[in-house]
Amino acid sequence: MHPEIIVIGAGTVGAAIAYGLARRQHRVLVLDGDDRDHRAARANFGLVWLQGKGQNMPAYQQLSRRSVDMWSGFASKLTDLTGLDLQYEQNGGLAFCLGEDAFEKRRSDLQRLHNQLGGAEADWRMLDRAELARLLPKVRLGPDVAGASFGERDGHANPLQLLAALHSGILRLGGELRRNAAVRQIVPSEAGFTVACGNETVSAPRVLIAAGLGSQALARQVGLEIPLRPQRGQILVTERLEPLLPLPTSGLRQTREGTVMIGATHEETGFDSSATAAAAADLSRRTLRIVPSLAEAKLVRQWAGLRIMTPDGCPVYAQSQKHRGAFVALCHSGVTLAALHATVLADAIAAGQLPDSLDIFHQSRFDVPKAA
Amino acid sequence: MFRKLHEPAEAVTVYVEGKPVVAEPGENLAAVLLRQEAIWSRPTPVKGSRRAPYCMIGVCFDCLARVDGVASVQTCMMPVRDGMTVEHQQRRRCLPS
Ligand SMILES: Cc1cc2nc3c(=O)[nH]c(=O)nc-3n(C[C@H](O)[C@H](O)[C@H](O)COP(=O)(O)OP(=O)(O)OC[C@H]3O[C@@H](n4cnc5c(N)ncnc54)[C@H](O)[C@@H]3O)c2cc1C
Ligand code: FES
Predict the structure, then answer these.
(1) What domain range includes position B45?
(2) How many domains is chain A built from?
(3) CB distance from A370 to chain B under 8 Å?
(4) Of the residues A61, A175, A299, A353, which has the maximum number of CB atoms within 10 A of its CB?
């Protein structure tokens, strides 16, 4: 195949965009790295989340909202194509507040963000303890729970099913996906880009770098300098339980099979992706303040993954100025943004031009001259 | 069905689904279950297929049962005690509310 575009990285981000391109009859070749790579796509929590996003950049809230609004249609198309159920539910989501101060702070944070967005009808509200208890009839709330914020558009999905469905979708639509195909080098050329992976090279007029934490080194080769750091997140998983939590919450969600996922920590520990007893203790302590009866549940798994963090926590979408046709897509919330990646972003990359509405996400926002 | 290779010198009684069963003091509880006619310990929570103790070293979680009223006990990690009660664990576990 002579690909029109080479997508580097088959994590949630690369796979979603590649799937979107394949849907648009683009010939895509996806090259994915090694099983020992850090892969956020296989370690994440599975929230399709809006509330609170973009406190420092309201455009990020708007972007996430576009994606969340498209998620249901995106999921059903993908299911129709692949037969895989993404287990997407969008019945709203909660962020618990421990103590009155936390409750008031949450209210004022969300209100400030809302004011910045100007005018739009609020899609969130604060629930006091009594309202919260009515929403969660099977949960006896811990005494410290003052209430929660409720986001109407929030939801959750099975992130591994999402990834599997995207991979399957790419193949069904005629795309090609190679595993164990870590890219070492990208060489801009007359006809586009020549990419070296393993013992071979492949060429295409366009290339998209979506290699998660592996992206920095690759982006540099096409003239994009992207500040990026890993941030560790640890998750605990309980045994399967009878339905207890009808809604996902920012740190607690029950999967359709019944396991309760507890997470995630935010730790600045570089590329160390080990799971720690200290994190298990912290997560358990916080969770038991919210749902004390979970003390009875057995933990069956714990893992750690590395988030792909930019300095402001917001996504980077950019085309190289120097080497037109080379794009980068990086973000922390790749599950939430998957619907947007498969549509808006895939369209833009297919057209060879990112829309003005995405300018604010260009990595040049980090090129602030250093003070002398 | 499994059987013991030797006659234990001492014996304790455990109750499997209410039925008294002879075991050796300190013996692995999952081993006792493997000697029963209904060898399985639990149906899986999602598809309901039957599972019996398998790895016997605490990694597979197929030996879960209710022991003395506590659900999801790994029986292969549990030495028997006189008077212990064991029940097949049905469905997913329900937390006390
Ligand atoms: C603990 C945790 C919880 C999270 N929770 C959520 C959540 O609830 N909701 C949400 O929306 N998001 C969540 N995320 C974020 C989400 O997982 C990521 O945004 C998403 O997986 C990023 O996808 P990615 O494709 O950019 O990177 P990855 O998933 O890391 O994939 C990168 C891929 O690139 C490949 N690669 C690397 N280098 C090369 C190379 N040189 N050549 C070829 N391939 C290469 C790797 O093998 C890998 O497959 C969470 C993340 C973590 C860590
Ligand atoms: S038999 Fe495998 S955990 Fe008990």
Answers:
(1) 28-87
(2) 3
(3) no
(4) A175
User: Does the C-beta of A283 come closer than 6 Å to ligand 1?
Assistant: no
> Residues of A294-322 as b/e, b for ≥16 C-beta within 10 angstroms?
beebeeeebbbbbbbbbeebbbbbbbbee
Residue A279 phi, psi dihedral angles, 5° rounding: -65, -40
Q: Which residue of A has its CA nearest to B95?
A: A293
- Cis peptide leading into residue A40 (ω within 30°): no
Task: Say whether both A112 and A249 belong to one domain.
Answer: no
Q: What is the CATH number of the domain that holds A327?
A: 3.50.50.60
Q: Based on the structure, what is the number of domains in chain B?
A: 1
| Helices A100-117 and A58-82, axial angle in degrees (round to 10) | 90
- Chain B hits for A139, CB-CB cut-off 8 Å, are 97
Of B61, B91, B95, the CB nearest to A297: B95
Can you give the pLDDT of all 372 residues of chain A as single tens digits? Answer: 799 999 999 999 999 999 999 999 999 999 999 989 999 999 999 999 999 999 889 999 999 999 999 999 999 999 999 999 999 999 999 999 999 999 999 999 999 999 998 877 889 999 999 999 999 999 999 999 999 999 999 999 999 999 999 999 999 999 999 999 999 999 998 889 999 998 899 999 999 999 999 999 999 999 999 999 999 999 999 999 999 999 999 999 999 999 999 999 999 999 999 999 999 999 999 999 999 999 999 898 999 999 999 999 999 999 999 999 999 999 999 999 999 999 999 999 999 999 999 999 998 888 866 554
Query: Domain containing A253: what range?
Result: 229-309
Whether the Cβ atoms of residue A230 and residue A242 lie closer than 8 Å to each other? no
Q: Tell me the CA distances in angstroms from A195 to A177, A189, A206, A210, one per residue in order.
A: 15, 10, 11, 14
Q: Do residues A171 and A62 both lie within one domain? A: yes
When CB atoms are compared, the residue of A257, A294, A300 closest to B95 is: A294
CATH of the domain at A276: 3.30.9.10
